[in-house]
Amino acid sequence: MGKAAAMEVSAAAAEAGMMLGWVAGPAVMLLxxxxxxxxxxxxxxxxxxGDPCTGKRNYTYMDAVRANLGGAKVRLCGVIQYANxxxxxxxxxxxxxxxMLAIKRADCFHEKGHKNPCRSSSNPYMILFGxxxxxxxxxxxxxQIWWLSIVAAIMSxxxxxxxxxxxxxxxxANGGFMGSLTGISVGAGVTSxxxxxxxxxxxxxxxxxxxxxxxxxKVMKRATMVSVATTTVFYMLCGCMGYAAFxxxxxxxxxxxFGFYEPFWLLDVANAAIVVHLVGAYQVFVQPIFAFVExxxxxxxxxxxxxxxxxxxxxxxxxxxxxFWPLTVYFPVEMYIVQKRIPRWSTRWVCLQLLxxxxxxxxVASAAGSxxxxxxxxxxxxxxxxxx
Length: 388
Fold this sequence. Notes:
Elements: H1 7-18, H2 21-44, E1 48-49, E2 56-57, H3 61-68, H4 72-112, H5 123-137, H6 148-174, H7 202-206, H8 216-246, H9 264-285, H10 287-290, H11 295-308, H12 312-339, H13 347-378
Helix pairs in contact: 1-2, 1-8, 2-8, 2-12, 4-5, 4-9, 4-11, 4-12, 5-11, 6-8, 6-9, 12-13
Organism: Oryza barthii
Protein name: Amino acid transporter transmembrane domain-containing protein
Main location: membrane
């Protein structure tokens, strides 16, 4: 469930990545896939403190940070992690409401024609999503329900396959691939990167692996390779076919941006699958926060903030950028250095630090672009009055 939970968000990120063109777009997505895989393997090595087979287990991401780094870095990690999870909840609320609204608009376009604006507010759908989350948040251990991952996989496969198929059909109708080698000029609108919030779940997943041999780290590395490879293939296929179908004018999201109007019922199925997926994903990702705050109050807070900031792509781009470097790169690298006792200024130490610095630079640039996009959105924004 965790790996698939960011699929809808990352599909939009793949679309944005392809706006860099046929050369840089795929290269950027592959680069981030490699970084995520590599840092995930570093994190897997930190599951046990000391001996990799018999050392003390670290059951969560925070446990690993506490065991290896300690002190102020534990508090810093906690603040970033919980802020990131709060952002995830906001992003999922916005995404789900946009998909629900897209179903209504698709039906409207079908009945009244494509020239009709079919404008509507997303607020009622955010409130509906919030009410559903309040109900589900009262179910004890909701994230432990065994069939959640199965439903998530089916929903992911459904809307990804529909989006991919529509992209292929449009490309065939065009008589060839659209787009360019260099893509559009990079500005505030092109800020998203492929991200993997499921890295925070690596420790919890690894804790379900039976005792060695082989060690949990080796098993987790193999699982991570398969998982990252699978999701990367999906992201690249969706991004590439969307760009091939519409070129530099590709919508931010093929399923909600109405690059396609027909068959409307197929778009409804895809967006319904997204909503079902995000309902469960929300509950899975915010469980750590539910352990510390009143659940209903948290859901209400995320719903209200979502209604105040309904800029899906820019908000998600900013949250992804801010959380990417510290949680995906910095802490895994620093923990691995401590765990393996890598000498300062050794070749390996220098290479790891260069990787961290490079990702920090990308994070800063991406966050700056997202902030510029949000500021641009705010110029025409009215609180609680956003329509699509």
